[in-house]
Amino acid sequence: MAPVILDGLPAELPDLHPELREMVTGDILDMLGQGRLDAAVIAIDVDLHRTAAVPMFDEPLVVLTAAGHPWAGRTDVSPTELDDQPLLLLDEGNCLRDQTLALCQRYGSQPPVAVATTLSTVTRMVAHGSGVTIIPEGALQLLTPSSEYGIARFGDESPMRRMGLVHRVSSSRGADFAQLAELISRLVKQADLPV
């Protein structure tokens, strides 16, 4: 999603100079609360700690596998099947980790195979056959070379994460942030990202 925002915002809002950072959700919410960030785009399926959220779109989650994995190409995966796979996760505090754990119950009895700090590290581990992971479908376009990966989709009700623009409840710029959220949603849909 970041490339879509970087490419589209300057044409629409030339005076806006966004500062993009990849951070864990807790740190983002802390910085918003301290006034060190004006707004942020995050998955809003979490406790937002006195933060206002403008919902933008739902993003489907998929299972990323190595290219030769038996699940590659499947479109009927059940979340309960994740319990039998070596699961690779992101570090604590990352909302994608929490969403992955919400899909399966294995963490209570079996720890994940590996935990990594960045999504790029996790995806490289998947490509090398270390396990599977859950990623937003929109992130698939960033994987290169794509021939190293397989994709498995969930069956009947595909899990989603709700993305939104968050800001301090006390901000006087709520209307501006609502317009920005609308613009980002439009840019994402125009880029044909799966939402």
What does the model show?
The chain is an alpha+beta fold and 195 residues long. Strands 1, 2, 5, 6 and 7 form a five-stranded antiparallel beta sheet that branches. Strands 3-4 form a two-stranded parallel sheet. Strand 3, helix 3 and strand 4 form a beta-alpha-beta unit. Helix 1 crosses helix 5. The longest helix is centred in the last third of the chain and has 17 residues. The chain is globular, with a radius of gyration of 17 Å. The relative contact order is 0.26. The model has no long low-confidence stretch (mean pLDDT 88).
Give a quick set of tags describing it.
alpha+beta, 7 strands, globular
Secondary structure blueprint with pairings:
Elements: H1 2-12, H2 25-33, E1 39-43, E2 51-66, E3 88-90, H3 95-103, E4 114-116, H4 119-127, E5 133-136, E6 149-152, E7 160-168, H5 174-190
Parallel strand pairs: 3-4
Antiparallel strand pairs: 1-7, 2-5, 2-6, 2-7
Helix pairs in contact: 1-5
Describe this structure in a few short sentences.
This protein has 195 residues and is an alpha+beta fold.
Element-by-element helix/strand order: HHEEEHEHEEEH
How many individual β-strands? Answer: 7
Indicate the multimeric state.
Answer: single chain
**C-alpha Rg (nearest Å):** 17 Å
Which structural class do you get from the secondary structure elements?
A: alpha+beta
N-to-C CA distance: 11 Å
| Main β sheet profile | 5 strands, antiparallel
What is the residue-mean pLDDT, rounded to a whole number?
88
Percentage beta strand? 15-25%
Name the shape in a single word: globular
Helix content: 25-40%
Number of helices: 5
